[in-house]
Amino acid sequence: MSGEAMMAMLDDEKARRSDYEISDDERRRARSRSLKKKAMNIASTRISHSLKKRGKRIADCRYASISVDDVRDAKEERAVEAFRQTLITRDMLPPLHDDYHTMLRFLKARKFDLDKTVHMWEQMLNWRKEYGVDTIIQDYVYDEYEQVKSCYPHGYHGVDRGGRPVYIERLGKVEPSKLMSITTVDRFLRFHVQGFEKAFAEKFPACSIAAKRHIDSTTTILDVQGLNFMSFGKIAHDLVMRMQKIDNDNYPETLHQLFIVNSGQGFKLLWNTAKSFLDPRTTSKIHVLGTKYRNKLLEVIDASQLPDFLGGTCSCEGGCLRLDKGPWTDPEIMKLVHIGEAMYLQKIKSYHEYDLEAELFAPKNISNDVSREELLPEVRKGASDLVHWIPPCDKNRTLYARQNRGKNGRSRSFLQCNNAC
Fold first, then answer.
1. 248, exposed or middle or buried, with CB in 10 Å at 0-12, 13-18, 19+?
2. Model's pTM, two decimal places?
3. Where is the CRAL-TRIO domain (predicted)?
4. How would residue 84 be classed by pLDDT, with cut points 50, 70 and 90?
5. 142-327: CATH homologous superfamily?
Protein backbone atom coordinates (compact mmCIF):
# COMPACT_ATOMS: atom_id res chain seq x y z
CA MET A 1 0.00 0.00 0.00
CA SER A 2 1.40 3.40 -0.97
CA GLY A 3 2.09 6.06 1.63
CA GLU A 4 -0.66 8.26 0.22
CA ALA A 5 -3.21 5.43 0.42
CA MET A 6 -2.14 4.64 3.98
CA MET A 7 -2.56 8.31 4.98
CA ALA A 8 -5.98 8.51 3.35
CA MET A 9 -7.12 5.37 5.20
CA LEU A 10 -5.89 6.75 8.54
CA ASP A 11 -7.62 10.10 7.87
CA ASP A 12 -10.85 8.28 7.09
CA GLU A 13 -10.61 6.19 10.29
CA LYS A 14 -9.89 9.34 12.33
CA ALA A 15 -12.94 11.06 10.86
CA ARG A 16 -15.15 8.07 11.68
CA ARG A 17 -13.89 8.08 15.30
CA SER A 18 -14.47 11.84 15.58
CA ASP A 19 -18.00 11.44 14.24
CA TYR A 20 -18.64 8.66 16.76
CA GLU A 21 -17.26 10.70 19.68
CA ILE A 22 -19.30 13.76 18.69
CA SER A 23 -22.37 11.61 18.31
CA ASP A 24 -21.79 10.01 21.72
CA ASP A 25 -21.25 13.41 23.32
CA GLU A 26 -24.43 14.71 21.71
CA ARG A 27 -26.34 11.72 23.05
CA ARG A 28 -25.09 12.44 26.58
CA ARG A 29 -26.05 16.11 26.30
CA ALA A 30 -29.45 15.22 24.91
CA ARG A 31 -30.03 12.77 27.76
CA SER A 32 -29.02 15.44 30.28
CA ARG A 33 -31.44 17.91 28.68
CA SER A 34 -34.15 15.26 28.78
CA LEU A 35 -33.53 14.58 32.46
CA LYS A 36 -33.61 18.29 33.27
CA LYS A 37 -36.82 18.81 31.31
CA LYS A 38 -38.41 15.76 32.98
CA ALA A 39 -37.35 16.99 36.40
CA MET A 40 -38.67 20.50 35.77
CA ASN A 41 -41.97 19.07 34.53
CA ILE A 42 -42.31 16.84 37.59
CA ALA A 43 -41.37 19.70 39.94
CA SER A 44 -43.80 22.04 38.23
CA THR A 45 -46.58 19.44 38.26
CA ARG A 46 -46.04 18.67 41.95
CA ILE A 47 -46.01 22.34 42.89
CA SER A 48 -49.13 23.09 40.85
CA HIS A 49 -50.88 20.05 42.32
CA SER A 50 -49.91 21.03 45.86
CA LEU A 51 -51.05 24.62 45.39
CA LYS A 52 -54.30 23.35 43.90
CA LYS A 53 -54.84 21.11 46.93
CA ARG A 54 -54.04 23.99 49.26
CA GLY A 55 -56.53 26.16 47.43
CA LYS A 56 -59.37 23.66 47.80
CA ARG A 57 -58.86 22.15 51.22
CA ILE A 58 -59.72 24.03 54.36
CA ALA A 59 -56.90 24.17 56.90
CA ASP A 60 -56.82 21.49 59.55
CA CYS A 61 -56.64 22.08 63.27
CA ARG A 62 -52.97 22.63 64.03
CA TYR A 63 -52.77 19.81 66.55
CA ALA A 64 -55.43 17.42 65.24
CA SER A 65 -52.68 14.92 64.42
CA ILE A 66 -51.93 14.41 68.12
CA SER A 67 -55.38 13.64 69.53
CA VAL A 68 -56.82 17.15 69.84
CA ASP A 69 -60.57 17.23 69.23
CA ASP A 70 -61.57 19.82 66.65
CA VAL A 71 -65.34 20.29 66.82
CA ARG A 72 -66.65 22.75 64.23
CA ASP A 73 -69.91 24.48 63.48
CA ALA A 74 -70.98 23.84 59.88
CA LYS A 75 -72.03 27.44 59.27
CA GLU A 76 -68.76 28.80 60.67
CA GLU A 77 -66.78 26.32 58.58
CA ARG A 78 -68.45 27.55 55.39
CA ALA A 79 -67.64 31.13 56.37
CA VAL A 80 -64.00 30.28 57.04
CA GLU A 81 -63.76 28.45 53.71
CA ALA A 82 -65.12 31.48 51.83
CA PHE A 83 -62.77 33.80 53.73
CA ARG A 84 -59.82 31.52 53.03
CA GLN A 85 -60.54 31.36 49.30
CA THR A 86 -60.71 35.15 49.20
CA LEU A 87 -57.34 35.44 50.95
CA ILE A 88 -55.73 32.92 48.58
CA THR A 89 -57.12 34.77 45.55
CA ARG A 90 -55.66 38.04 46.83
CA ASP A 91 -52.34 36.43 47.81
CA MET A 92 -52.93 37.34 51.47
CA LEU A 93 -52.57 33.93 53.13
CA PRO A 94 -48.99 33.13 54.15
CA PRO A 95 -48.70 29.37 54.88
CA LEU A 96 -47.98 29.95 58.56
CA HIS A 97 -51.28 31.81 58.97
CA ASP A 98 -53.25 29.19 57.07
CA ASP A 99 -55.06 28.02 60.18
CA TYR A 100 -58.80 27.42 60.55
CA HIS A 101 -59.13 28.81 64.07
CA THR A 102 -57.05 31.91 63.34
CA MET A 103 -59.31 32.83 60.42
CA LEU A 104 -62.40 32.07 62.50
CA ARG A 105 -61.27 34.44 65.26
CA PHE A 106 -60.93 37.29 62.75
CA LEU A 107 -64.34 36.56 61.26
CA LYS A 108 -65.92 36.63 64.71
CA ALA A 109 -64.22 39.94 65.47
CA ARG A 110 -65.95 41.50 62.46
CA LYS A 111 -69.26 39.65 62.91
CA PHE A 112 -68.60 37.54 59.81
CA ASP A 113 -68.61 40.57 57.49
CA LEU A 114 -66.22 39.32 54.78
CA ASP A 115 -65.06 42.70 53.47
CA LYS A 116 -64.37 44.06 56.94
CA THR A 117 -62.57 40.87 57.93
CA VAL A 118 -60.35 40.95 54.84
CA HIS A 119 -59.44 44.56 55.64
CA MET A 120 -58.65 43.65 59.25
CA TRP A 121 -56.53 40.70 58.09
CA GLU A 122 -54.59 42.89 55.66
CA GLN A 123 -53.88 45.44 58.39
CA MET A 124 -52.69 42.62 60.66
CA LEU A 125 -50.27 41.29 58.03
CA ASN A 126 -48.87 44.78 57.44
CA TRP A 127 -48.45 45.38 61.17
CA ARG A 128 -46.64 42.08 61.65
CA LYS A 129 -44.23 42.91 58.85
CA GLU A 130 -43.54 46.47 60.06
CA TYR A 131 -43.21 45.39 63.71
CA GLY A 132 -41.05 42.34 62.97
CA VAL A 133 -43.47 40.06 64.82
CA ASP A 134 -42.56 36.83 63.02
CA THR A 135 -39.12 36.78 64.66
CA ILE A 136 -39.84 38.71 67.86
CA ILE A 137 -39.61 35.62 70.09
CA GLN A 138 -36.03 35.00 69.01
CA ASP A 139 -34.87 38.54 68.32
CA TYR A 140 -36.22 40.58 71.21
CA VAL A 141 -34.44 40.49 74.57
CA TYR A 142 -36.25 42.21 77.45
CA ASP A 143 -33.43 42.63 79.95
CA GLU A 144 -35.55 44.53 82.47
CA TYR A 145 -38.12 41.74 82.81
CA GLU A 146 -37.42 40.90 86.47
CA GLN A 147 -37.45 44.56 87.51
CA VAL A 148 -40.71 45.15 85.65
CA LYS A 149 -42.36 42.19 87.40
CA SER A 150 -41.49 43.72 90.79
CA CYS A 151 -43.53 46.86 90.11
CA TYR A 152 -46.10 45.34 87.77
CA PRO A 153 -47.19 41.92 89.11
CA HIS A 154 -48.66 39.89 86.26
CA GLY A 155 -48.33 36.52 84.58
CA TYR A 156 -49.90 33.20 83.67
CA HIS A 157 -50.77 30.72 86.40
CA GLY A 158 -52.49 27.38 85.84
CA VAL A 159 -55.58 26.64 83.77
CA ASP A 160 -59.33 27.02 84.21
CA ARG A 161 -61.74 24.07 84.33
CA GLY A 162 -61.91 24.10 80.53
CA GLY A 163 -58.12 23.83 80.22
CA ARG A 164 -57.54 27.45 79.15
CA PRO A 165 -54.52 29.33 80.54
CA VAL A 166 -55.31 31.72 83.40
CA TYR A 167 -53.73 35.17 83.11
CA ILE A 168 -53.58 37.41 86.20
CA GLU A 169 -52.72 41.08 86.72
CA ARG A 170 -52.60 42.81 90.09
CA LEU A 171 -53.33 46.32 88.83
CA GLY A 172 -53.72 47.70 92.33
CA LYS A 173 -50.04 46.98 92.96
CA VAL A 174 -48.71 48.63 89.79
CA GLU A 175 -46.26 51.47 90.39
CA PRO A 176 -46.50 53.52 87.16
CA SER A 177 -43.68 56.01 87.87
CA LYS A 178 -41.28 53.23 88.87
CA LEU A 179 -42.32 51.17 85.85
CA MET A 180 -41.55 54.03 83.45
CA SER A 181 -38.17 54.60 85.11
CA ILE A 182 -37.23 50.97 84.40
CA THR A 183 -38.54 50.58 80.86
CA THR A 184 -40.07 52.61 78.02
CA VAL A 185 -43.52 52.42 76.49
CA ASP A 186 -42.15 51.08 73.20
CA ARG A 187 -40.02 48.39 74.88
CA PHE A 188 -42.90 47.31 77.10
CA LEU A 189 -45.24 47.06 74.10
CA ARG A 190 -42.73 44.84 72.31
CA PHE A 191 -42.53 42.69 75.42
CA HIS A 192 -46.33 42.50 75.42
CA VAL A 193 -46.39 41.39 71.75
CA GLN A 194 -43.67 38.84 72.42
CA GLY A 195 -45.81 37.46 75.25
CA PHE A 196 -48.76 37.00 72.90
CA GLU A 197 -46.57 35.25 70.34
CA LYS A 198 -45.26 32.91 73.03
CA ALA A 199 -48.83 32.16 74.07
CA PHE A 200 -49.65 31.03 70.53
CA ALA A 201 -46.37 29.17 70.10
CA GLU A 202 -46.30 27.44 73.50
CA LYS A 203 -49.14 28.03 75.95
CA PHE A 204 -52.18 27.52 73.74
CA PRO A 205 -50.70 24.42 72.04
CA ALA A 206 -49.68 22.92 75.42
CA CYS A 207 -53.13 23.57 76.86
CA SER A 208 -54.75 22.09 73.73
CA ILE A 209 -52.74 18.90 74.10
CA ALA A 210 -53.38 18.66 77.86
CA ALA A 211 -57.14 19.26 77.44
CA LYS A 212 -57.36 17.24 74.18
CA ARG A 213 -59.29 20.00 72.46
CA HIS A 214 -58.43 23.19 70.62
CA ILE A 215 -57.70 26.16 72.90
CA ASP A 216 -56.77 29.68 71.81
CA SER A 217 -58.26 31.93 74.49
CA THR A 218 -57.57 32.82 78.11
CA THR A 219 -59.45 33.36 81.34
CA THR A 220 -58.16 36.63 82.78
CA ILE A 221 -58.33 37.99 86.32
CA LEU A 222 -57.67 41.65 87.08
CA ASP A 223 -57.20 42.39 90.78
CA VAL A 224 -57.88 46.11 91.22
CA GLN A 225 -57.58 46.23 95.01
CA GLY A 226 -55.86 49.48 95.93
CA LEU A 227 -56.06 50.88 92.41
CA ASN A 228 -56.14 54.68 92.40
CA PHE A 229 -57.07 56.12 89.02
CA MET A 230 -55.77 59.55 90.02
CA SER A 231 -52.27 58.19 90.64
CA PHE A 232 -52.31 55.82 87.71
CA GLY A 233 -50.87 58.50 85.45
CA LYS A 234 -51.41 59.57 81.84
CA ILE A 235 -48.45 57.53 80.50
CA ALA A 236 -49.68 54.35 82.17
CA HIS A 237 -53.21 55.02 80.89
CA ASP A 238 -51.91 55.54 77.34
CA LEU A 239 -49.85 52.35 77.64
CA VAL A 240 -52.94 50.33 78.55
CA MET A 241 -54.89 51.86 75.66
CA ARG A 242 -52.14 51.00 73.17
CA MET A 243 -51.93 47.44 74.49
CA GLN A 244 -55.68 47.06 74.05
CA LYS A 245 -55.50 48.32 70.47
CA ILE A 246 -52.74 45.85 69.60
CA ASP A 247 -54.75 43.02 71.14
CA ASN A 248 -58.04 43.95 69.48
CA ASP A 249 -56.53 44.56 66.04
CA ASN A 250 -54.10 41.65 65.82
CA TYR A 251 -55.10 39.01 68.37
CA PRO A 252 -58.91 39.17 68.32
CA GLU A 253 -61.23 36.84 70.21
CA THR A 254 -58.54 35.52 72.55
CA LEU A 255 -60.41 36.46 75.73
CA HIS A 256 -62.76 33.78 77.02
CA GLN A 257 -63.76 35.50 80.27
CA LEU A 258 -62.53 38.47 82.30
CA PHE A 259 -63.02 38.74 86.06
CA ILE A 260 -62.37 42.11 87.70
CA VAL A 261 -62.11 41.46 91.43
CA ASN A 262 -61.90 43.68 94.52
CA SER A 263 -63.65 46.48 92.68
CA GLY A 264 -65.13 49.29 94.76
CA GLN A 265 -68.36 51.18 94.22
CA GLY A 266 -66.61 53.81 92.13
CA PHE A 267 -65.26 51.22 89.73
CA LYS A 268 -68.64 49.49 89.46
CA LEU A 269 -70.33 52.81 88.67
CA LEU A 270 -67.72 53.54 86.01
CA TRP A 271 -68.22 50.08 84.50
CA ASN A 272 -72.01 50.39 84.41
CA THR A 273 -71.58 53.60 82.41
CA ALA A 274 -68.89 52.22 80.07
CA LYS A 275 -70.59 48.94 79.19
CA SER A 276 -73.53 50.75 77.59
CA PHE A 277 -71.10 51.79 74.81
CA LEU A 278 -69.64 48.30 74.31
CA ASP A 279 -70.79 45.38 72.20
CA PRO A 280 -73.10 43.10 74.25
CA ARG A 281 -71.02 40.12 73.14
CA THR A 282 -67.96 41.74 74.75
CA THR A 283 -69.70 42.76 77.95
CA SER A 284 -71.06 39.23 78.40
CA LYS A 285 -67.46 38.06 78.89
CA ILE A 286 -66.67 40.63 81.61
CA HIS A 287 -67.64 40.12 85.24
CA VAL A 288 -67.08 43.01 87.66
CA LEU A 289 -67.00 41.63 91.20
CA GLY A 290 -66.48 43.16 94.62
CA THR A 291 -64.64 41.49 97.47
CA LYS A 292 -66.91 38.42 97.53
CA TYR A 293 -65.55 36.89 94.36
CA ARG A 294 -64.06 33.59 95.59
CA ASN A 295 -67.05 31.34 94.86
CA LYS A 296 -67.45 32.82 91.39
CA LEU A 297 -63.80 32.18 90.55
CA LEU A 298 -63.96 28.64 91.91
CA GLU A 299 -66.84 27.90 89.54
CA VAL A 300 -64.46 28.31 86.60
CA ILE A 301 -61.03 27.61 88.16
CA ASP A 302 -60.09 24.74 90.47
CA ALA A 303 -58.70 25.84 93.86
CA SER A 304 -55.38 24.08 93.15
CA GLN A 305 -54.91 26.27 90.08
CA LEU A 306 -55.83 29.52 91.83
CA PRO A 307 -53.27 31.52 93.87
CA ASP A 308 -54.01 31.86 97.56
CA PHE A 309 -54.23 35.65 97.31
CA LEU A 310 -57.30 35.11 95.10
CA GLY A 311 -58.92 32.54 97.37
CA GLY A 312 -57.28 29.41 95.96
CA THR A 313 -54.98 26.88 97.62
CA CYS A 314 -51.85 27.38 95.49
CA SER A 315 -48.88 29.12 97.13
CA CYS A 316 -45.93 28.69 94.79
CA GLU A 317 -42.51 29.20 96.28
CA GLY A 318 -41.25 32.60 95.22
CA GLY A 319 -44.74 33.79 94.27
CA CYS A 320 -47.39 32.35 91.98
CA LEU A 321 -46.99 35.06 89.35
CA ARG A 322 -43.27 34.39 89.07
CA LEU A 323 -43.47 30.63 88.52
CA ASP A 324 -45.38 30.63 85.21
CA LYS A 325 -47.15 27.41 86.20
CA GLY A 326 -49.03 25.50 83.51
CA PRO A 327 -48.94 22.64 80.95
CA TRP A 328 -46.39 24.64 78.96
CA THR A 329 -43.77 23.88 81.65
CA ASP A 330 -44.27 20.11 81.31
CA PRO A 331 -41.35 18.72 79.23
CA GLU A 332 -43.36 15.78 77.89
CA ILE A 333 -46.21 18.02 76.72
CA MET A 334 -43.75 20.45 75.12
CA LYS A 335 -42.17 17.56 73.19
CA LEU A 336 -45.60 16.88 71.73
CA VAL A 337 -46.02 20.59 70.95
CA HIS A 338 -42.80 20.57 68.95
CA ILE A 339 -43.73 17.32 67.18
CA GLY A 340 -47.20 18.69 66.39
CA GLU A 341 -45.68 21.90 65.02
CA ALA A 342 -43.26 19.95 62.84
CA MET A 343 -46.07 17.74 61.53
CA TYR A 344 -48.18 20.79 60.74
CA LEU A 345 -45.28 22.46 58.94
CA GLN A 346 -44.79 19.31 56.88
CA LYS A 347 -48.36 19.77 55.64
CA ILE A 348 -48.05 23.42 54.70
CA LYS A 349 -44.70 22.90 52.96
CA SER A 350 -46.27 20.52 50.43
CA TYR A 351 -45.08 22.66 47.52
CA HIS A 352 -41.52 22.81 48.82
CA GLU A 353 -38.69 20.65 47.51
CA TYR A 354 -38.83 18.29 50.50
CA ASP A 355 -42.32 17.28 49.46
CA LEU A 356 -41.19 16.89 45.88
CA GLU A 357 -38.41 14.60 47.04
CA ALA A 358 -40.74 12.57 49.28
CA GLU A 359 -43.49 12.08 46.69
CA LEU A 360 -41.47 11.96 43.50
CA PHE A 361 -40.71 8.29 43.18
CA ALA A 362 -44.11 6.78 42.50
CA PRO A 363 -43.63 4.31 39.60
CA LYS A 364 -46.10 6.14 37.38
CA ASN A 365 -43.93 9.25 37.38
CA ILE A 366 -40.69 7.68 36.16
CA SER A 367 -40.08 5.90 32.89
CA ASN A 368 -38.14 2.65 32.88
CA ASP A 369 -35.09 4.15 31.17
CA VAL A 370 -34.46 6.70 33.93
CA SER A 371 -33.20 5.70 37.37
CA ARG A 372 -34.23 7.47 40.58
CA GLU A 373 -30.61 8.23 41.37
CA GLU A 374 -30.17 10.01 38.04
CA LEU A 375 -33.33 12.07 38.31
CA LEU A 376 -33.13 13.16 41.97
CA PRO A 377 -30.38 15.82 41.60
CA GLU A 378 -32.24 17.34 38.66
CA VAL A 379 -35.53 17.38 40.59
CA ARG A 380 -33.85 19.15 43.50
CA LYS A 381 -32.44 21.72 41.13
CA GLY A 382 -35.74 22.01 39.29
CA ALA A 383 -37.59 22.57 42.54
CA SER A 384 -35.12 25.18 43.76
CA ASP A 385 -35.43 26.98 40.40
CA LEU A 386 -39.21 26.98 40.68
CA VAL A 387 -39.64 27.76 44.37
CA HIS A 388 -38.40 30.79 46.31
CA TRP A 389 -38.34 29.95 50.01
CA ILE A 390 -37.65 31.73 53.29
CA PRO A 391 -34.62 32.06 55.70
CA PRO A 392 -33.02 29.55 58.29
CA CYS A 393 -34.83 27.87 61.16
CA ASP A 394 -34.83 28.82 64.82
CA LYS A 395 -32.21 26.94 66.85
CA ASN A 396 -34.56 26.01 69.65
CA ARG A 397 -37.81 25.19 67.82
CA THR A 398 -38.92 24.66 64.25
CA LEU A 399 -41.29 27.60 64.10
CA TYR A 400 -40.99 28.33 60.42
CA ALA A 401 -41.08 26.29 57.22
CA ARG A 402 -37.55 27.05 56.21
CA GLN A 403 -34.91 25.40 54.09
CA ASN A 404 -32.07 23.93 56.13
CA ARG A 405 -28.92 22.20 54.93
CA GLY A 406 -26.85 19.67 56.85
CA LYS A 407 -23.07 19.78 57.06
CA ASN A 408 -22.80 17.53 54.00
CA GLY A 409 -25.00 19.88 51.97
CA ARG A 410 -27.97 17.51 51.84
CA SER A 411 -31.48 18.64 52.68
CA ARG A 412 -32.79 17.67 56.13
CA SER A 413 -36.39 17.04 57.05
CA PHE A 414 -38.16 19.29 59.57
CA LEU A 415 -37.97 16.69 62.33
CA GLN A 416 -34.29 16.11 61.61
CA CYS A 417 -33.69 19.84 61.64
CA ASN A 418 -35.66 20.25 64.85
CA ASN A 419 -33.58 17.59 66.59
CA ALA A 420 -30.25 18.73 65.22
CA CYS A 421 -30.53 22.48 65.78
1. middle
2. 0.70
3. 144-318
4. very high
5. CRAL-TRIO lipid binding domain (3.40.525.10)
